[in-house]
Amino acid sequence: MNGKGNITGTVLGAGVMTLIIVCLCVSAGVSRAKRAVTLCTDTEIRIADSSENKFVCREDIAGYISAGYGRTEGIPIGDIDLKKIESVLDSQSAVLKSEAYCTKDGTLHVDISQRIPVMRFQKGAASFYADADGYVFPLKDGKSSHVIVIDGYIPLKTAGSGKGQAVSGREREWIERMTDMVLYMEKHKVWDRNIVQIHVQQNGDLILIPREGKEKFIFGKPSGIEEKFRLMESYYTGIVPAMGKDRYRSVDVRYRGQIICK
């Protein structure tokens, strides 16, 4: 009797499992069939960081999809190649990352993360931004971000192609040091507010130009930044109160422990 009971229970269990599998397969098939007939009726685009950085707008993203992918509305959502849409959008210089997905109501959702610039380079007539990873991307007409401007002899060939990472080791090292310097200034708000421009001389030395005052700071190469900014702070807290404002035209902080005013 026990043997028959065990056999009967096994058969029933197997039957129930088979029924569950069949139901799941039917449900999956219904879901696929529903996706196949559900048409895309709307596109919802969401852009992160759009309050401060406005390099792309919803109209831009819709235009990129239309030009690089094609029509989506009126197409079954199951036939929309989401990976291709993401690839089209990720190739845009100001787009850091995109995510595309469809919902069962027929809406194509596109979420965009923008590149966040930390500095702007002015190389002759060419202008371009760089983010914290050293990725260079061009300005767009009518779009801007309030970041420090670096001009003069910019040692980056990347600007010629309009976007991308620095290729040579020397270029990568330079832009990494410049990024460290600018991020240091952002962290210490007094420098972020007071230094408005950095000029690169032909020998690679940096000249820092403050928002107020006649003096220019001869900073040297973008290294030893903490020590140099400490000397600049000493100039403002010690020398200016003693000697008066606008007395000097240049303040040299290139040498450790020394402030040379002229």
SSE sequence, one letter per element: HEHHEEEEEEHHEEEHEE
Radius of gyration: 30 Å
- β content, as a range? 15-25%
Strand order in the largest sheet:
6-5-4-7-8-9-10-11-12
- Looking at how many chains there are and whether they match, the oligomeric state comes to single chain
CATH topology of the largest domain: Rossmann fold
The residue ranges in which pLDDT falls below 50 over 5 or more consecutive positions are 26-35
Basic shape: elongated
Mean pLDDT: 85
Class by SSE composition = alpha/beta
Largest sheet: 9 strands, mixed
Number of helices: 6
Quickly name the level 1 CATH class of the largest domain. Answer: Alpha Beta
C-alpha end-to-end distance? 108 Å
CATH architectural category of the largest domain: 3-Layer(aba) Sandwich
CATH level 4 superfamily of the largest domain: Cell division protein FtsQ/DivIB
Give the helix level as a range of percent.
25-40%
Say how many strands there are: 12
